[in-house]
Design a protein that fits this description.
The chain has five helices and twelve strands. The protein has about 290 residues and is an alpha+beta fold.
């Protein structure tokens, strides 16, 4: 099936090259055997038909250029600028989003961005973030502005509730939420300053404007291990209940291991037995793993 070569081709062309490869050069670089050459050529045709690959008049293969709009996953940096990782790779690479152009988008959101082009020489380009590294070739010839959030990656966030001069805020655990989040119902669910809570945004942070949220769950005193564990579970949407079949498999695996241990040296023939060796650990007795 030619499909098995498509991603390898796109990954290779997504790297920076001084000269675009021909099909023969690309075939050699990917170590395609003679038996697979026909399938490899079919993959090139499929990619070209899908608009994911272009072949120039010189016969060299290149990724397509960015169109006026692009959709993909957004990744924000701590400096306020970010990048849209397109659904499909383009010659210009990830789309740079300067500070002030990110809108309400947060890391992980699927977004749509308008593409703008800077035709000045690379040395004359000055990005508003003041920190994005310059790249070769086309990689910084474009920048964008997020125009739409197609899908939010997260809707619930964890943080610690604090009160300042009678105004309630949540200091979010998520690093993408830099500024405190205003909440107007700080004590509505019996929470107090120093309480770990789960909140949802009413208004997401946008550029230099702080967000506003609403508390949906009060977990308990911040810093307690059980509370912090609940915060991670809730904030990331982790499952806490599992199908009966999965629980049964886990129980059977435990029983099987116990049977091996009871079987003595015969059951441990493929394992190194260190039970008689004095061992120190930095972890407590109830830890799930030991360092």
């Amino acid at each position: 099936m030619p499909l098995r070569f498509k991603q390898r081709i796109l990954d290779y062309l997504s790297e920076e090259f001084h000269v675009a490869p021909t099909s023969d050069v690309l075939c050699k670089a990917l170590r395609i055997s003679e038996d697979d050459r026909l399938l490899f050529d079919e993959a090139l045709v499929l990619l070209s038909d899908e608009g994911l690959l272009s072949r120039g008049d010189d016969g060299r293969l290149r990724l397509p250029r960015l169109s006026d709009q692009v959709s993909g996953r957004f990744r924000m940096t701590s400096r306020g600028f970010g990048f849209v990782i397109p659904d499909h790779p383009y010659r210009e690479g990830d789309l740079f989003i300067p500070r002030g152009n990110t809108g309400e988008a947060m890391t992980g959101d699927r977004v749509r961005a308008r593409v703008m082009r800077d035709h000045r020489p690379a040395r004359a380009r000055q990005w508003r973030d003041g920190g994005a590294k310059q790249a070769k070739g086309d990689r910084r010839s474009c920048f964008g502005r997020i125009t739409e959030i197609i899908e939010q990656a997260k809707t619930k966030f964890a943080g610690t509730l604090v009160s300042r001069a009678g105004v309630w805020y949540v200091n979010a655990d998520n690093r993408d939420v830099v500024a405190p989040v205003l909440v107007r119902d700080g004590q509505a669910k019996g929470a107090k300053s120093g309480t770990k809570v789960i909140f949802e945004f009413i208004l997401r942070p946008e550029d230099d404007y702080a967000g506003e949220g609403v508390i949906v769950e009060v977990l308990g005193e911040a810093g307690r291990p059980d509370v912090e564990t609940q915060a991670v579970i809730a904030a990331h949407g982790l499952r806490t209940q599992f199908p009966a079949a999965a629980i049964k498999d886990a129980r059977n695996a435990t029983l099987a291991f116990e049977a091996i241990v009871k079987d003595g040296s015969k059951g441990l023939r493929n394992r190194e037995d260190l039970r008689s060796l004095l061992t120190f650990t930095i972890d407590p007795p109830d830890a799930r793993d030991f360092d």
